[in-house]
Design goal:
α6 packs antiparallel against α8 and α9 runs antiparallel to α11. The strands form 2 sheets. Strands 7, 8, 9, 10, 11, 12, 13 and 14 form an 8-stranded mixed beta sheet that branches. With about 450 residues, this protein is α+β, with helices and mostly antiparallel strands. The protein has 12 helices and 14 strands. It has 2 domains: about 110 residues, Ubiquitin-like (UB roll), CATH 3.10.20.70; about 325 residues, Glutamine synthetase/guanido kinase, catalytic domain (Creatine Kinase, Chain A, domain 2, 2-Layer Sandwich), CATH 3.30.590.10.
Amino acid sequence: MPAWTDSLPDAAKAYLEGRRLDEVECVVSDLPGIARGKAVPASKFARQDYFHLPDSVFYQTITGDWGEAAGDDGFIEKDMVLRPDMSTATAAPWTGDWTLQVIHDAFDSAGEPIPFSPRNVLKRVVELYTAKGWTPVVAPEMEFFLVARNTDPLQEIKPMMGRSGRPAAARQAYSMTAVDEFGPVIDDIYDFAEAQGFEIDGITQEGGAGQLEINLVHGDPIKLADEVFYFKRLIREAALRHDCYATFMAKPIANEPGSSMHVHHSILDTATGKNIFSGPDGEETDAFHHFIGGLQSHLPAAIAVLAPYVNSYRRYVKDHAAPINLSWAKDNRTTGIRVPLSGPSARRVENRLAGMDCNPYLGIAASLACGYLGMVEKIQPSPEFKGDAYAADEDIPRVMGDALDLFDNSNALHQVLGEDFARVYSIVKRAEYDEFLQVISPWEREHLLLNV
């Protein structure tokens, strides 16, 4: 192997041991979380310290269009400088040759971070914590569906066929038999994850037909966001090997639960390494309550980031394992903000609002931003909710347009995430929303065509 590979992470070295590296995929996450970049021969990668990519990749909508009014001087597509973060180098074990993936950070020509690059947005938020002497720790949970191939968008999405020859069944949460139905896909997920050096904390069957959940071990927010970014591709590739699709849509199948990316948060005192959510005697601290208060106060404006598409809002339905409000409680999965059972050192806050369709960098950044504002502003939460939160009032935006209005009017959130990011994000999301509103749905044709 070439000399530069000596600095690779251990998993990447093990993957390449005794083999000739053919190609390196130089990637960056766009706003939806799609990997953009270039694939280059390994010999060329060894000679380059950076490469260029137009900043228009961050103005691209999920449909491949671009948001308008990109800046005060118009849409001129400036070149960015993308530099590799070699700590992210990992295998692409589904490829036909020996390939590595490397996440790159985006800078402008003056060497300043591109403010609307999702990874840079998360770095900005983490740096705000660092400046306060805090170290944020997160643990994301990834829910997704394995579904039958769907090549015609006019057809409904259906569960995949299991090894028994029957479609995946719904309402089989935590069933080991149901997990076994997808055994070959799961085996490839484990194999790919091991080759990439990722540690899976567990895989379970969720309540939807063909719905699975993967839990990751808690750690650094940027590292975990990198892993979720990689995992989405890894899982899709494993599914394709077995004639099915993996989808991370928030609500792919009507009358089934949606897919979330629950995020667990704890904050350490950087100097002592102790959890600031717990006091010397294990009691709940002001920081703990202020973090919850920040989520309650600022999540309404952040929903546009945690639920980035029109489909996202179909997930917020009562009694379908998704929150409908911002109540908080201990060990209560009907609330939007949950405090899991734990000892004082592991006390944490779970944000249950983020959909699995959100960009992992932006979803984690927005969630941390809300908690940060709560601790800085010393926001007190509402009293702990008792009972079934589905019986309480809804206070989550139900449509994308309302969520974007709240986001656009949140100066506090813009200050934490970055004003340039907020501007670009709103431009792109409003372009997507406007495009959706131009589509006439089958429901409208069925019920309005001859009846109104």
